[in-house]
Amino acid sequence: MQLEDGRTQGTPDDGIAHAISRINAQLDLLSARFVGRRALLELIMLGLIAREHVLLVGPPGTGKSAAVQSIATAIDASFFEYLIGRFTEPSELFGALDLDALKDGQIRPVTSNMLPEAEIAFLDEIFLGSTAILNSLLKILNERTYRRGQYSVKTPLLSCVAASNAMPEDPLLAAFADRFLVTMFVDPVGENELPDLLKTGWRETGAGAVPIAPLPKSLFASLHAAAVAIDMDEVTEAYAHIVRKVRLIGVVLSDRKLVKGQTLIAAAALLRGSRVAGPEDLWPVTYLVQSRSQQEEVRELLHVELQHSRNPVLSNSVADATYGPTAHAAALAEQAALLLESRPALPTDPLHERWLVRLETMQTRIDAAFDRTSLPQQLRPVHASIESLLARHGPAAAGAAAEDGPREPA
Predict the structure, then answer these.
(1) Rounded distance, CA 109 to CA 361, Å?
(2) By percentage, how much of the chain surpasses pLDDT 70?
(3) Is residue 373 a part of any domain in this protein?
């Protein structure tokens, strides 16, 4: 149905459509700097539009800090970052006391360039913070208010991105972690992406990162206003059904998180180019779960409900959200088949040894992901081919050949 201004019913107006196009273009520029990190960048951008907080969990050296710093510089907003340690003082984040005010009997911190004045924040090793730090953070995360004694001020925070090497086991810290609506588990770049990682890293090191023109804050304000106006009626029952299924496998999602989860669904619908949320936009529910193993269970459990998920701007995070063991097996089978096809013609080819190393790595990836007795059907033929080739040409075969003397090439 055409509206009077020429738009199709349910689509955003031209101004919002242009803003979405700019978000997508910015993500393209940013993801070119970070191999295998498009989904991470997409989720941070989603958090900024929804004005929700994002938790990144993964080992050191996986690019979490660099990605957040890069996206922060690509937005015209004040940015605060800090690496928290066990001995970090609250004043290092929130500002030291104003001594002049203290002489007059007033408790007032100097918050200039500190967390209370930040629009985007990045807090590394978040769970190492003291009780005093975490309590002050709670007020900022939940209510966008910083309070110290009688002093209270509203903060302009759009989104706080936090990082940690692992999820906390302490129940009190787990309760604090629940304030982060989006949780993403970040792994090192996969074996297939290593050449791209090395090339990109070397290019950025040599020439330096080319500056990206920052997006204005007003663009995010417009998108946020449009997101909260999204019609959610069509997905309310479907969302409730998903929550019931997830709870049946023991996943705990607080009422607060479930209600706020709708902001992610609405923002996803907006970035898909719609003013009405549909089944395609329910995929963010995967990122509400704060356990790596349970996220995998949810992906597989909701295979039917999330099979129609799509988003032209957030394509990689959609793929990760709906990527269960079945899809993982299919991807491994495809990668293994391509690797087998790339076999050098002659064993004497210098590239043959490198190819064997990659073949061994692929076998390790398959064996790590699936038990041999329950190997998915699509993986069985390529796994058998890899085993056969490694038995004939791998290190063990080479050692046996050295003991037995020269043999005719296979």
Answers:
(1) 54
(2) 90
(3) yes
Domain that holds residue 337: 327-404
Helix axes 217-228, 14-31, angle to 10 degrees: 120
Half-sphere exposure of 351 (CA within 13 A, CB side): 6
Look up residue 213 and give its two tokens. 């023109």
DSSP class of residue 79 equals E
pLDDT beyond 70 at 392:
yes
Is residue 121 within 8 A of residue 80, CB to CB? The reply is yes
pLDDT tops 70 at residue 90? yes
The pLDDT of 298-316, averaged and rounded, is 92
Handedness of CA 38, 44, 46, 48 (dihedral sign): negative
Reference 56, options 173, 170, 161; nearest CA is 161
Domain count for the chain: 2
In a domain, residue 277? The reply is no
Q: Starting at the edge strand that comes first in sequence, how are the strands of the sheet with 159-164 ordered?
A: 79-83, 120-124, 159-164, 54-57, 182-185
The Cα-based distances of 105 to 97, 100, 174 in angstroms read 12, 9, 37
Question: Measuring CA to CA, which residue among 116, 81, 80 is closest to residue 95?
Answer: 116
Residues comprising the chain, all counted: 410
Percent of the chain with pLDDT over 90: 63
Tokens 């629009």 -> residue: 119
pTM: 0.81
Q: What DSSP letter does each residue of 96-135 carry, written as one string?
A: -B-HHHHHTT---B--TTSGGG-SEEEEETGGG--HHHHH
Residue 305: inside a domain: no
Would you say residue 80 lies in a domain?
yes
Contact between 320 and 36 under an 8 Å Cβ cutoff? The reply is no
Q: Which of 283, 288, 281, 282 is nearest to 252 (CA)?
A: 288
Residues 332 and 188 in one domain: no
Report whether 138 contacts 99 (CB < 8 A): no
